[in-house]
Amino acid sequence: MxxxxxxxxxxxxxxxxxxxxxxxxxxxLINDGVFMSVGTSLIVKPSSGMTLIIGEGRAWFDHTxxxxxxxxxxxxxxxxxxxxxxxxxxxxxxxxxxxxxxTIKVITGxxxxxxxxxxxxxxxxxxxxxxxxxxxNPTATAITAANxxxxxxxxxxxxxxxxxxxxxxDDLIHQWEVEWAERVTSYxxxxxxxTNEQRTAFLAWVDQEKTEFLSWLTALETELTSxxxxxxxxxxxxxxxxxGQLSTDVAGNLQNEIDAEIQKQFLRYHDLISRTxxxxxxxTTNVITIVAESSEATSNTTIExxxxxxxxxxxxxxxxxxxxYIKTATITKTVSGTSIVEAYTTxxxx
Length: 350
Hints:
Layout: H1 19-27, E1 33-35, E2 44-46, E3 51-54, E4 57-61, E5 64-68, E6 72-75, E7 85-94, E8 101-107, E9 126-136, E10 148-150, E11 159-162, E12 165-167, H2 170-246, H3 250-270, E13 276-282, E14 287-293, E15 297-305, E16 309-318, E17 323-333, E18 338-348
Parallel strand pairs: 1-11
Antiparallel strand pairs: 1-4, 2-3, 3-6, 4-5, 7-8, 7-9, 9-10, 11-12, 13-14, 14-15, 15-16, 16-17, 17-18
């Protein structure tokens, strides 16, 4: 080690100074780093394809300065077909006699399943300072902002904010990362709790609806069976009575024949075996609709509650012909029991 000084006037060449001695004067005022207030501070951004742009800016490293006065493109090597890699864009200061230059260049990483950035050169003559890391995914043809990790402003490549002042945001970034991780964990816990609550409530609702539907369906089947049995008995009693009363009446016999033919056609289509039946209930109007379909006819039955009973209307629409067949059964509760009035009619198809 030795003591140096300067600058003094030279007499006959007895005072000569090199670049290091000249730079020492600036070193006493400026720490190493990228100037925060010049241009865009050499920040790296994707351009198109595998090309990135180095922003304008000035830096001071290893007693030397570098200045970029316009956006400068730099292109990465093509991606690997199978594995990712981490490339690094660096500011390199080379004090070797053969080079004596500062530049910005790409250090291409090694493809690997879990790639890491290449260790940068730190030596007496050559030093590399990272501007950013870039993840190059397999078969990638373009670089996005999400692939770029900025290093300017960190301890590896600090900002110069003023004379003898630098800023290192490593601690700040770490704090942000911790806070973000805690917030993400909190959101995940809240989301999971909410999801479980909603799932439990939904399953309970489904079970309740299923129970109520099965109960309603069982009651409907029982009611329809009871109605069928009661209707058949009442109809036979009515029919035998009317048949006896009108057996000697020509007009009555004619009407009997008409009613019998309507009933015959109604029952022919109503009792088809090969059919598809659907049952729906309108909770607003309290009307049950039963639709049975076959290749020969469509049956549409509605069961509507009234104040003192029910009205059941069955409309048969055959696939052929011009007539529809209708059976109407009115069930009324009376003081002595239940009254059922049935009628068969026809209408022309619309």
